[in-house]
Amino acid sequence: MKKSILPILTVLAAIVVIWYAGAVWLNSQWTYDQAARAGVEVTFSEMVSDTLTQARPVLPAPHQVAKGLWDGIAGQKITSKRSLVYHAWITFSATMAGFGLGTIAGILLAVGIVHSRAMDMSVMPWAIASQTIPILAIAPMVIVVLASLGIKGMLPKAIIAAYLSFFPVLVGMVKGLRAPDAMQLDLLRTYNASDAQGFWKLRLPASMPYLFASLKVGIAAALVGTIVAELPAGATQGLGARLLSGSYYGQTIQIWAALFGAAILAALLVLVVGVVERITLKRKGMAQ
Amino acid sequence: MRSPVIDAKDLNLIFETNDGPVQALKDVNLSIERGDFVSFIGPSGCGKTTFLRCIAALEHPTSGSLTVNGISPEEARKARSYGYVFQAAGLYPWRTIAGNVKLPLEIMGYTQADQEARVEKVLSLVDLQGFAKKFPWQLSGGMQQRASIARALAFDADILLMDEPFGALDEIVRDRLNEELLKLWATTGKTIGFVTHSIPEAVYLSTKIVVMSPRPGRITDVIESTLPKERPLDIRDSAEFLAIAHRVREGLRAGHAYD
């Protein structure tokens, strides 16, 4: 751990330096334009300090994003519409609902595909085709159709999140349920085991490492799906809505704060799945 | 007269492959009596594993007749009349050693108390008493293979089929396990079918050695061993042992003279 901390900090410092340089470079145009309009000259140091403190910079400086993020997380009551925690909670709950739906759908489809040749031939191509359609194109249609049926709020977002997250779970579980080799299947035949016994005692436990690997991808995909679903809905709640309103009003700091909020949420979600994975596999003796 | 445990008459098995049909077994005739220890020896492709898999109803002969305990292999499989040990131990990594041995018992619906008792009994048979709670990765290859033998012994099958169970182990471990297997055979009285590549292993273990040769897979010689039932490891230096080993080697050579 100690050995890896230095390289990590080095990379982080490099990113911050490049970010500051980029902020100065991209925001300087505005500073010069303002100065020219007022008919004054700006020195280099004046220019630099101005580019890092603009209200609506092209690229906000790291400390501005950090402040925006801090304000959003700690500076507001968490029930306030200005609180990032509030918006993150809205997005999080839809993400979890969608992730749950997607995981269940993915597992059930995988079980069907592994046990039925007809399903193997018919479902898999559709599942793959479903992921080639850009989610940005399909999300507004789903939202609009469901809204016309009177379904609003969390469910449409969860459906889009599920649409994205079922696929990695499906692919991982098909691979996992097929992981046992011919010898292990032969062994069960020598016991005259039923298909159900083969599933519960061999295929399902053997698929666990594959399941967790795909759950990590699936939960991140569910978050992306939820945020995308919050964009076209005219939604006023959620990190996606926060991104959208930020871009409406040119509030770049708000956009970046929401972006980082989403990134932190994604990291936390994947981390939690990772912890559950480690505990489960350890208890099952599959990790040392 | 007692009927043989395994009886094959004019058994043929032809695999249809992309390169045309392959005769895996040709006119195999063999009967195995109760309590026999029968080794199948021969080069790769001679059909020794295929024949064992036919007995286990994992392969199905194209023609001829084969009975196991007087019934068809498929019925015998459904009656769970044999235990099968594969070349690799194939233990489930998510189960402890005891859990692995319990697997067939759970599938066959033994009671919880019976399961516990049987696990304890067979683990001591293969000398793994202290390892019930360990996971497979905590055991050496030889111990894993012993656990897989325990798994095949856990339920009441009077036939034990072993497909090169010690093939992947080094010779020192193999010698020990051979000795233990003979003891096991003596205490349980099971009928054992044993596939191997090794001449000394076949001669040391068997009451009957079946020499096979490839293309097509067939039996070239069946040798009834004259060695006593009690066999210390150094019996392998005796003249009698070497004479049998010589005959096995001759049989293998004769099989190769065809091509």
What does this structure look like?
The complex is a heterodimer of chains A (288) and B (259). Chain A has 288 residues and is mostly helical. Chain A folds into 2 domains: 2-58; 84-283, Orthogonal Bundle (MetI-like fold), CATH 1.10.3720.10. Chain A is 80% helix and 0% strand. Chain A contains 11 helices and no strands. Chain A has helices at 2-38, 44-51, 62-74, 84-115, 117-132, 135-148, 154-177, 182-190, 195-230, 239-248, 252-283. Chain A is elongated and about 90 Å long. The two termini of chain A are 19 Å apart. The model of chain A has no long low-confidence stretch (mean pLDDT 90). With 259 residues, chain B is an alpha/beta fold. Chain B folds into 2 domains: 6-81 and 159-256, 3-Layer(aba) Sandwich (Rossmann fold), CATH 3.40.50.300; 91-156, no CATH class. In chain B, 37% of the residues lie in helices and 25% in strands. Chain B has 8 helices and 9 strands. Chain B has helices at residues 48-55, 73-78, 97-108, 112-125, 141-153, 171-188, 199-205, 239-256; strands spanning 6-17, 20-32, 37-41, 63-68, 82-85, 159-163, 191-196, 208-213, 218-224. In chain B, strands 5-6-7-3-8-9 form a 6-stranded mixed β-sheet, with helices on both faces. A 3-stranded antiparallel β-sheet of chain B has the order 2-1-4, with helices on one face. In chain B, a hairpin with a 4-residue loop joins β8 (208-213) and β9 (218-224). In chain B, α7 (199-205) packs across α8 (239-256). Chain B is globular. Chain B starts with 5 loop residues before the first strand and ends with a helix. The A-B interface holds A 183-184, 186-193, 197, 201-202, 205-206, 208, 284-286, 288 and B 56-58, 77-78, 80, 82-84, 86-88, 90, 92-96, 103-104, 106-108, 135, 137.
